[in-house]
Amino acid sequence: MSEILLLLGFFWVAAAYSSVGHGGASGYLGLWAFTAYSTQLGATLALVLNVIVAGLTFVIFRRAKHFDWKLTWPFLIFSIPLAYLGGKFAHQAHWQSLVLTLVLTYAAISLVFKPSQKTENPCAPTPFVSAMTGGSIGFVSGLVGVGGGIFLSPLMILLNWAKPHTVASLSAVFIFLNSLAGLAARPTELLQQSMEFWPLILAGVAGALLGSWFGAYQTSSRTLRVILALVLVVAAAKHLGQAVGI
Asked: What share of the chain is helix, strand, coil (3-state, %, to 5)?
């Protein structure tokens, strides 16, 4: 893949994912597969971009008054240490990739075809349920090498725990902190090497600014659900490729 196409790919991945509060790690890893560089370096760069993109996205969604700290904090208390722990383990086996493919595909279909709710009043989970959910997703995210929003967002929307814009802002800070924990578990030399790809990082920053502004200010809840479903389909395709070894 040429450098120009790679730059454009990273830009559009960041724009699409940030519009729903995600960092885009799955998308970056998919593009990275077309390069000759190591998977370990790609995973580290993806986490670096996750931190930057999710951080910018959180700031913009918060300025748009979509953030709810009371809803957010229980998801974080176990997810961060468990994301670090997951990052210390080996990569997932093929069967795990297949399970992730099925889960993400089901979530994507449900988001698109789920009947519109007559009430606009979400029911937030208890702090205990939030903490257990965040911890489980944090550990799996550390294993896979992503921030976790790809799992948390559809779950929260399908269970009507919060409105899509609130979910996006919560996911952004969740991804930001879990990605930092994942980076802390990786060798320092990989982090240093990833900084050599600063043009890709800048492309991600530009995409994040565009996508998060669009998601926070210009889209309806229904549109966010459709975009999130498309993001999940892309992530599912990536994990299916891992499961079958392509």
From this structure: 80, 0, 20
**pLDDT at position 149 over 60:** yes
Domain extent for 168: 3-244
Percentage of residues of the chain with pLDDT beyond 70 = 83
> What distances in angstroms separate CA 166 from CA 157, 169, 206, 211, one per listed residue?
10, 5, 23, 16
Say what the pTM is: 0.81
Instruction: Give the amino acid at 171.
Output: S
Asked whether the beta carbons of 78 and 152 are under 8 A apart, the reply is no
* Count of the separate structural domains present in the chain: 1
pLDDT of residue 129: 96
CA distance 57 to 225: 17
Q: What angle do CA 211, 212, 218 make, to 5 degrees?
A: 85
